[in-house]
Every structure is written in C-alpha cells, then in structure tokens.
TrEMBL record:
PANTHER family: PSEUDOURIDYLATE SYNTHASE (PTHR11142), PSEUDOURIDYLATE SYNTHASE 1 HOMOLOG (PTHR11142:SF4). It catalyses: uridine(38/39/40) in tRNA = pseudouridine(38/39/40) in tRNA; a uridine in mRNA = a pseudouridine in mRNA; a uridine in tRNA = a pseudouridine in tRNA. The keyword tRNA processing applies. Pseudouridylate synthase that catalyzes pseudouridylation of tRNAs and mRNAs. Acts on positions 27/28 in the anticodon stem and also positions 34 and 36 in the anticodon of an intron containing tRNA. Also catalyzes pseudouridylation of mRNAs: mediates pseudouridylation of mRNAs with the consensus sequence 5'-UGUAG-3'. Acts as a regulator of pre-mRNA splicing by mediating pseudouridylation of pre-mRNAs at locations associated with alternatively spliced regions. Pseudouridylation of pre-mRNAs near splice sites directly regulates mRNA splicing and mRNA 3'-end processing. Monomer. Forms a complex with RARG and the SRA1 RNA in the nucleus. This is Pseudouridylate synthase 1 homolog. The active site is at D115 (nucleophile). The gene is Acey_s0061.g3256. Residues 27-49 are annotated as: Disordered. GO terms for molecular function: RNA binding; tRNA pseudouridine(38-40) synthase activity. Keywords: Isomerase, mRNA processing, Nucleus, tRNA processing. Its EC number is 5.4.99.12. Coiled coil: none annotated.
Amino acid sequence: MLKRLLQRVVASMTKLAEVVEQKSDAPLHGVQSGRVEKRHSESQSDGQAKVRIKKAKYAMLLAYQGKNYFGMQIQKGHPTIEGELISAMHKLGWITEQMKEQPSLFHFQRAARTDRAVSAVRQICGMELPQRDDYAIIGVNELNTLLPEDIRVISMRRATNLFHPQKKCCARTYSYTLPTFAFAKPTELTNAAFRIKKETIDEINHLLSIYKGTHNFFNYTSKREFDDRSCFRYILSFECGEPFLFHDDVRNEDVEFIQLTVKGQSFILHQIRKMVGMVIAVVRELQYKSYIQRTFESDRVDVPKAPGLGLLLERVHYDVYDRKHAKTHEPLTDWGPEVEARVKEVKFELITKEILISELRHQSMLQWLADLVRHDFCADPEAEELPKQTFLTMAVAKAEEAAKAAAEKMEVKEENVPSCEDGAKQEALEDGTTANVSSCGDTIKKEIQEDGTTVDIPPACTDAIKKEIQGDNVTVQSGQITEHCRACMLGMWSVIPGKGAIKLCEWSTHSIGQSYQLACPLRLFQK
C-alpha cells in the first residue's frame, strides 16, 4: 500500500517537472525585470501615454452689477452671473464641455444666491481647477477679458480640498442704499431737496435694532409656513449709516442718499427687502412700530417689499475657516490691502454709482412709495381685526362723506341753476361774491348762496377751479373724489386739523414741474 502511494507521488512530480521545463524559455506574463506591466489598453492611448492632470480647490472673489441678470445661479434661457462665468472658463480651457453642462463635476459652488437685479461686491465661488500658480494674476486677467463689463473677477486663492463657500461661511453682510426722502414724515416734502434729520436717523436705528437676534421670518418670505424651522434666522447687526450727497447731472441738483447695513448668519428670499420696506412704512407713519413685533408671530402679514435696486452683497465671512487654516492657507474674509483697494474701486464705479444713477433716472423708490400708501398689511381676508387707519385713509373717508352730502344738496337745488356763460359769471360777481368759474358751456349744479359762501365747478368742466393754501387761510372745496393724480400717483384728499377734508391735488393730469396751487400728498411739487 505504501509502495503504491510513493509511486503516485513520484509520477506527479515528474509531470510537474516536464511542464516547468516546457515554459522555462517564456517570460512570466506581465513581468519584466521584476516589474508588473500594465495592460496595453491602460498604458497607451493611440501610441501616447495617458497623463494625469493635477487639480486643486480654488476660491474666487468677484463683483458684479446684477441689474441685467436673473440672479446668481444658472437658469436655462435667462442670463445669469454663473452662466457668464462658467462660459468664460470653458473658453479658456479650464473646464470641459461636460463640466460646463454639469458644474457639479468640477465642484462649483457659490457663497450666496443673489436674486434678480441684486449686485455683489465680494461674492465667493469655490471650484476645482487644474493646478496653476498664476491664477491670482494671469488667470484673473484672462477671465476679465472674456467676461462682460458688469462682471469682474477680483482675485483667486488656493483653498482646502474640503472647502465649500456656502457651508464654510459663518455670516453674510448686505447693504441697502436708498434716497433719504423715503423716510420723510407726512408733514415733510418728499423730493430731492429733502434732508434727513438726526432724530429720524436715531428712530431708524431703533427700529432696525428690533430685528437683531433670532426671529421667525416666515412673513418676510414667500411659500413658507410659520412652523417651518428654516424661517428662523439670526441677525447679528442692523444699522443706518450717515447720509451722503450725489449730484444729479440731469436736474442739476444734489440728492441725499443713505445706506442700511445688515449682518446675519444667513437670509431667506426677500427677507432684507421686506425688512427695509417695513421700517420705511413705520417711519412714514403708515404703520405702528409695534407691528414689527407682530410680524414675527403666527398670523400672516403682508409685509411690503422694497425695490431690489439698492440691495448689495457686501461681504461673506469665513472667520472660523480662517482661524483653523491660518498656517496653511490665506484668509478668505480679508484679502489684504491691495485686493481691498481694488474692491473699493470696482464697487463705486461698477455698482454704487450705477445704483445711484438708476435711482435718479427711473425713480423706482418714488414709485414704490406711491404704492406703499395703498398697501394692505392684512393679508388674511377673513381676519376680524381692522387694518390700521392712516392719515390718508381717514382723509378719503372724510372726503367721501363730504362728497355724498354735497351731492344730496346739489340734487335739491338743481332746478335753480344758471348756465355757465359769461353773463352768469358777471351776475355772480355783481352780487358781491368771488366766483372763479370757467366758461365751458356746461351747467352749474348749485347756484351761489345768498350769503356768498358756496361756489361749485361745472359737472364736465375741464378747467379746474384753483384753490390756494396760504398759512391758515384754507379754502375747502366739496365735490366728488376724482381719479388719482397721474404725476404723484396718490389720492387727492387730506385732512387739516380744524379744517376738515381738503383737496390736495387740484389737477388729475398735471405734469412734472407744472405750477399749481395745492401740494400733493408726496409733496413732490410746490407752488
């Protein structure tokens, strides 16, 4: 038994020796000189060795004027900041065609998504690009030659491989620039000659301080409910700066502007514009100060939204990131004096100056103020609480009562009405009364009383009877409320203590610069 087992072992070893001897002349597959070779498909491509490109994460600092764009983030079919920037990088060969269509392939992110027409002066973008040492100078110049004039790349820096501009950002600072006449009181003129008082600035700062801290801002955005935890935002600071003058070359006058600056951890859609709009409404006495606190509660409130023209992303803060990587990477909050000097230059020429000129040309704030007077803060139609009565709403109610009473009185005396002819006008003057009646050929609806106290205009007369306000001498005219003034876009009536309802704007079709006797509610024009 043992003998047969030994014979089998010897036979197996003999066969193995024969196989080894047959392959002794052939090299081991994939091994030459002790090194393992790669397969042909991996080692070569069309006869050339494949080269692996080293990549690194970069942070880009850029500024842009947003009035010609539909926000920062890419939107198909609309011009955006990211669309222009990524297209320029593709033309330079920094990214491939596939990366252009899918920016996530080269890890493109932004610190803040600005809305339509909103500008930024220190926006930060993060991306993974082929490693180069000259991005900060040569790369910036190459990009700016391909970008539109209203988008400027300021500088670029190496960042950590895990850098994310939005998630690593600990705070954001925005500013809102607007003409000071937006804060004019009802008794003050709302025009270019307005100059804000220190007391008003103190009041604005007090109102802005109400927003500091953590609050539920669901009333300051859209399509969110009170129980949505994402509506809670933390405001670090909110302040009003000092006023400054900017010369209007067209009208050859100086207009006063002011800047509001807010710093917070993050903001939701429309939040800043609605905060500014609410403060303006309170300062102009169109709403109570206590109403601001009510907007943080569960009841739905329609908070007015200020125009987007003056909103500007000033800075994104990376304080924690800068402290953590101070020894290995340059800071991203403060880019140094040389870069900051360039930022200030671009900010004024590209953004601030354009904001001021656009405001003077298009009067966006002035038009918004006209609509603000009619704004209904009560968004819930089933709410039992009545909206706040302002001086204008009370004036309209008073005027409607006067118009109704006058109409009833006119019907009674309609039979004894003389015609609006020169003879009737002369006869009225001979009675010892002063009647400024236009000769339009229509019938006067109410004859002059015996005591000479009442004179009404013809029903279809196109020439308005002129009234004057000189000191306390106020002439009150009764009659129906006409359509809104097309120049100031506000109602015609107001209330003067002790005088009742008076008509503020005498002509519904007056043009800008036209001289007329009564000031309109916005006090845009004077006699």
